[in-house]
Structure formats: C-alpha cells, structure tokens
Amino acid sequence: YPKQKPIISLMRERLSQEILDLLKKIGEVADSMGFGVYVVGGFVRDLLLRRKNDDVDIVIEGEGITFAKAFAEMMGARINTYSKFGTSVIIFPDGFKVDVATARMEYYTAPAALPEVETSSIKLDLYRRDFTINTLAIRLSPEGFGTLTDFFNAQRDIKEKRIRILHNLSFVEDPTRVFRAIKFEQRFGFTIGKVTREMIKNAIHLDVFRELGGLRVFNEFRQILEEENPIPAILRIFDLGLMKIIHPGIEKHNDLIDQLDEAKKVLAWHDLMYTDEPIERWVIYFLTLLSQCDREISEEVAKRLMLAPKHKKLITGDRFHARNAYTWLTYSLPATNSDLHRKLSPLRAELLLYIMAVSANEEIKKAISHYMSQLRHISLSIMGRDLKEMGLKPGPLYSRILEETLAAKLDGTLDDRDDELAFAARYLQE
Ligand code: CTP
Known about the structure:
Elements: E1 3-6, H1 8-14, H2 17-32, E2 36-40, H3 42-48, E3 56-61, H4 64-75, E4 78-82, E5 87-91, E6 97-103, E7 106-108, E8 117-119, H5 122-127, E9 137-139, E10 147-150, H6 154-159, E11 162-163, H7 170-173, H8 176-188, E12 191-192, H9 194-206, H10 214-225, H11 231-239, H12 243-246, H13 256-273, H14 281-290, H15 295-304, H16 309-332, H17 337-344, H18 349-358, H19 362-373, H20 384-389, H21 397-410, H22 417-429
Parallel strand pairs: 3-6, 11-12
Antiparallel strand pairs: 1-10, 2-3, 2-9, 4-5, 5-6, 7-8, 9-10
The structure holds cytidine-5'-triphosphate.
C-alpha cells in the first residue's frame, strides 16, 4: 500500500489559482467519465521541494486519450495524440500544455471464490520511472483531491536528499538515466545513492551506452548544459568516465575548469546586461568543452550525437570562425571600431561569449564587450534609396559605399545623416 497524506494546504500555498482550478477541473471531468486521475512526476517532486514547475503530467486510470479529447473540447484546447503510447498533449489557446498518459486498470481473478481484485496500474506506471523522487502522485479525483500518494518511499529520499533507482536494471533499460541522475543530483544538491552509484558503474562496465541513439544522448547532455550551473555535473561526467560516450577526444585538460568558470561568469554578465536578449546557454558550454578538439573530432562528435545541420555547423564551422576572430584579436588590438565591427559582426552572440570564455586575455574581453554593448547597435541613417537619389544605378557598389560609410561612422567621423550623405557622395566621386 502506498503512503498517503493530504497536501492540499501546500498546494494552496505554492500553486497559482489557475493551476489549482485546472487540476480540480481535470479531477472532476475524469471522475464524470469514471476514470481515476493523478498529477505525477516532476511537478509533484518540485512542489515538495518548493521549486517552480509548470509541467503538468497527468495519469488517467482508464483511457487517457478519450479523456484528453473530451477535456480539450470542453476547454477549447487542441490536442496531439500518440495512440501507440496512449498519450496526448493538451495545448491551450495561450500555449500552456498538459501531458496526459494512460494507466489501464488491471483485473486479477483471485483464487477460489473470492471476488475479482482490481489493482490500480498507477503503481506500475510509476514503477517504470527513473528515480524514486519522480514517482510521487497527487490524487485529483474529487474524492481525495490533494492526497499525496507515495508507493516507493520517495518522501524519505527527498528528505535524505538521495537519487535512487527503483530497480537494478533501470540503467540497462534506459542508459540516458545515468545523465539524468547527474542532472538531478547537481540541480537539487542531492547525492546519488550507494546502490545507484554501483549500478552506474555497472552500466559503464557493461557498455550499455554503445547502442544508445545519439539524439537521446544529445538531448540529455544539452539539458545538463542548460542547468543553472552545469559545471559540477560536467565534472561528474568526466569523473565517472562518461564523457567518452560522447567522444574520447573530449578531455579534461588543464585549462578546462577555468574556462568553464569563465563561461559561467560571461553568461552572468550577459544576463545582467541584456535581460531581453535570450541566448542558448548550452552552446557556450558545449563549445568551451570542445575548444581543444580538432575538426576531425568535431565531425565525429556531430555524427555521434546525430546533430541537426545547424548544430553541426556550430561545432564544425562557426567554432573555427570564432577561433579565427580570436587569433585576429590576439594580434590586432588595439583596433579601430570599424575593424572590430567587420571581424565580429558575422559572429552570433553565443560565439562572442565563447571567445570571451576561452580567452584569458583581458584586452580581448574588453574589445568584445565594447563591440557588444556599443558597436553592434550602430547603424546608418542612410540607405540604398539615398544612393539612388544621388543618381547611382543599383549594383554591387551600393553595399561597398554603405559599408565604407558605416565604417566612417563607427570610427566617429560622421555625426548625423547629412554627414553620412556627404561622405557617401564624396566616396562615390572618388
Ligand atoms: N522519465 C524516465 N526515464 C527517462 C526520462 C523520463 O523515467 N529517461 C520519467 C521521469 O520519471 C519523469 C517523467 O518521465 O518524471 C518526465 O520526464 P521529464 O519530462 O524529463 O521531466 P522531469 O523529470 O520533470 O525533468 P525536468 O525537471 O528536467 O524537466
């Protein structure tokens, strides 16, 4: 039997009224269809840990898809359905999503003349999950709404800050869980339990990762790199000998920890300066990890992780453009604004932050920071139309003149639109 206790007051304290109303409604609708219903997994874990989490995962005891269809229709939402897995995603008009899974009721005929026993398969559903901390469920049916249901001593593990698998084959069944264990351990400041640690070693020993699809490895690895502070997890991956799953050529060289620390600082700086400019944080850590790998290793990493073309380009192409810019900076500083602009403007923000992370040179960091905070925002007031009005026929000369005018503006010789026009006219004459 599961441990059960009401946690309605914690729900009221921590959840928004919208989410509470939504959960109640889900409970009522499922009940009217004769289905039991729970919210499960990370949502419940984070509620107990008092962390924000809006990923609502629902398990229906009955027909999840039938429920999702009815509920979506009632709420004016869309659904995507995956019949093979009995799952649906309900997508509300404002983009909010609710995942719905199915746990079918199972009936066992008891021996002798005893009545048929109905066993909730919610337990089985939860047993298939990765770690005990992810197996908590809260009942949503009107009768018992807000009852925390704990089959596998998850509350004890949360209290004792422990990541623990449910059975010894967990990592063999799904090797990506090794990465997830590390992610959760670092995110929550927990420790991977002793037996679980042994099982990780065992999985590495058995080389269960060999058959693991690159996409799945990449997905988990990227999630780790997106964590608030991924550095301890990255080091744990090295120490457990897991980085070789991605590529044996990715090494924990002497400068790596400093560079990763620097990447973290640079990202904090970026967050502070450019709050409304989202960047892909994982890219900076990923490039930093690969900074000493050559093109051949980069190609192999891209292949192993089955990277999409744009991500492949990032590590096999863009990274080397960034390196060229870095080399140029090393030999050319101090440089004019226009030269800085010319060299750095082809690089996206992530690549500039990457150069800052791997460069131990303060001058280079200052130059990039100057480009990012000032130069990249400077643009011309004049455009092609103005050149046309000067009598110039459209052609390749246009962009040349505009580039030269921008260069002059960046170097501070042009103050206003009239100066720009005069410069362009003079350039044209020459
Ligand atoms: N899960 C699993 N094995 C995996 C991936 C997921 O058992 N390889 C289970 C987990 O128990 C989890 C649920 O599926 O509760 C949903 O996984 P996910 O969407 O990754 O959510 P979270 O556990 O909340 O992770 P995160 O907080 O990083 O989103």
